[in-house]
Amino acid sequence: MPTILTMQSREAIKMVTDSYVRSAIDYFEVTRARPSSASTLLISDWSRLPFHTTDFGWGEPFISRPVALPEKEVILFLSLGGERKSITVLLGLPVSAVESFQAVLQM
């Protein structure tokens, strides 16, 4: 059974239509403003990006992922390996939330 957070995430994803993205791009091009990420958690699914096919001349990598998160409070979903049978989740949490998160994992 999906959790409330899962359902809210799915609903938010459905709201991001092509016209919504185009409108946002137009707005930021006109205003030159950078969107504020204050009080915002960014969730991005990179699990379908082909990091496993990166080749710098010495063959496919054993593992390949971003060196750092693009923003402070970001969650990235990455596939692991060429077969993509597992997902690695990278969490960018504020320091104030780390202890609470660890406590939840210990439950």
Explain what you see.
The two termini are 19 Å apart. The protein folds into 2 domains: 1-35, no CATH class; 37-107, no CATH class. The protein is 36% helix and 16% strand. With 107 residues, the chain is α+β, with helices and mostly antiparallel strands. A 3-stranded mixed sheet has the order 1-2-3, with no helix packed on it. The protein is globular, with a radius of gyration of 17 Å.
Low-confidence segments, given as residue ranges, are none
How many runs of DSSP E, i.e. beta strands? 3
* End-to-end distance: 19 Å
Strand order of the largest sheet: 1-2-3
Along the chain, the helix and strand elements come as HHEEEH
Report mean pLDDT, rounded to a whole number: 80
Strand % is 15-25%
Structural class: alpha+beta
The general outline is: globular
Brief characterization of the structure:
The protein has 3 helices and 3 strands, in the order H-H-E-E-E-H.
Key phrases:
single chain; 107 residues; alpha+beta; 2 domains; 3-stranded mixed β-sheet; 3 strands; 16% strand; Plant_Fungal_Acyltransferase; CAT-like_dom_sf
Topology:
Elements: H1 4-15, H2 18-31, E1 42-45, E2 74-80, E3 86-91, H3 95-106
Parallel strand pairs: 1-2
Antiparallel strand pairs: 2-3
